[in-house]
Design goal:
Length: 417
């Protein structure tokens, strides 16, 4: 009797532990929306509805609305299926559990409760022309919008993570979330949302390989990029090789442009950099040879190597650097041949990095400005004839440098120098 009682107590304790410590996940259930006639299948996990998809319907509306709740459960993820059609097949089962093209649905409304858009969810929705991804969506999986061939406008949160794959073979690109969406002509990026509530901007970590999975690389249509206010940083490689980008609207809150962020975006013609910008990292605008108009805010305090190198059509008169500048990289303005006028460097610089202004139209003038001076005279040294040719470069010899420094220290007039 005592042994039986112990067994009953043990089972009771085990049940309680199961209730509290094992995730509450049940098998798939179905719900029919009597108004639309659509039957939804879902799985309950941690008191939310996940992996939601459509089981059956009579007709589909032009605007497909994903439910915010099902049977009282908040919907947090939607999906298609990663089940293949058979050996060698590349067709995808979408949220309708079909691999056939759908042209009935023209638009899709995704609720703010969604945080994950799963594999193949909207694959082959060929009637879809635009999509808005809610701010709380943190992940968009492989093939999610595969072959949405008429999609022209997308809106994404900066905090979303789009599927990438590290395989370097071109064939792997078919796994991209927006693969075969080649007509995208407008991309808007919102600040998004994070669990902490702090928005930093475009934060997905990319490389030259994984950047190829982004929709701005996949499209084969010239597109406009809009970065909404609230975004403070553009991460490394964000728009790397975005060669179809024809314009970009920068947010008025931007502080950092990452390494290779706009590398080789050759069709960009005009950019307005905000006065909040502080850091332009290595290769940020490397070989953006289509840029003709771009301002240079005095708020910038750090410029990486090759940051503007190869912007051969950038037309700008006069560059003034911030008194607070802490970094000026090598080749920063290399071959920006239409940069003209004057260049003002603060006295924090004791030397100009190699080839920093090589190939520009800026006359070679170095101004040494001191905040505390005992006199108010100005010493001008003309060293334009004191060099030797070294290939395409003009090179100062040690004797030339010594002559310049001796003159600066002595502050004496020398005829024709």
């Amino acid at each position: 009797m005592k042994q039986k009682l112990k067994y009953i107590i043990f089972i009771g304790i085990l049940s309680i532990l199961t209730l509290f410590f094992i995730p509450n996940k049940v098998n798939a259930a179905t719900y029919k929306d009597e108004e639309t006639g659509i039957t939804w299948t879902y799985t309950v996990s941690d008191n939310t509805a996940i992996d939601v998809y459509i089981t059956s319907y009579t007709t589909l509306p032009e605007t497909l609305e994903i439910p915010e709740t099902i049977d009282g459960y908040t919907v947090t993820s939607i999906c298609g299926s990663n089940t293949s059609m058979g050996s060698g097949s590349t067709e995808r089962y979408n949220i309708l559990k079909t691999n056939k093209a759908n042209t009935e649905v023209k638009s899709i409304v995704i609720p703010e409760t969604i945080n994950t858009i799963g594999v193949n969810t909207f694959a082959n929705f060929q009637g879809l022309t635009s999509i808005v991804i809610p701010d709380k969506v943190s992940s968009i999986s492989a093939y999610a919008f595969y072959n949405c061939s008429n999609l022209v406008e997308i809106k994404l949160p900066a905090t979303v993570s789009l599927y990438t794959y590290t395989n370097t073979y071109t064939s792997s690109l078919e796994r991209a979330a927006f693969y075969k969406c080649t007509k995208i002509s407008k991309i808007t990026i919102t600040p998004g949302a994070t669990a902490s509530g702090v928005t930093k901007g475009i934060t997905q970590t990319l490389t030259s390989t994984t950047a190829r999975y982004m929709p701005w690389y996949i499209t084969r249509t010239q597109f406009d990029l809009i970065l909404e206010d609230g975004i403070t940083q553009i991460s490394d490689y964000s728009f790397y090789n975005g060669s179809y980008m024809k314009s970009v609207k920068m947010p008025n809150t931007l502080e950092i442009i990452g390494m290779n962020a706009f590398y080789n975006c050759t069709k960009l013609k005009e950019i307005e950099l905000p006065d909040t910008l502080k850091t332009v990292k290595t290769n940020a605008f490397y070989y953006c040879n289509g840029i003709e108009t771009m301002n240079f805010p005095t708020s910038i305090t750090a410029i990486g190597n090759n940051a503007f190198s190869g912007c051969i059509n950038w037309k700008l008169e006069n560059i003034t650097f911030s008194e607070n500048i802490i970094e000026l990289g090598q080749n920063a303005f290399y071959n920006c041949k239409y940069l003209t006028g004057t260049l003002e460097l603060p006295n924090v610089f004791t030397e100009v990095p190699p080839n920093c202004f090589y190939g520009t139209g800026i006359p070679t003038i170095i101004m040494v400005l001191r905040q505390k001076r005992e006199n108010d005279d100005v010493l001008i040294i003309d060293a334009s004839k004191n060099f030797i040719k070294s290939g395409k470069n003009n090179k100062l010899q040690a004797s030339d440098i010594k002559r310049i420094l001796d003159t600066v220290i002595a502050r004496k007039d020398k005829p024709k120098f």
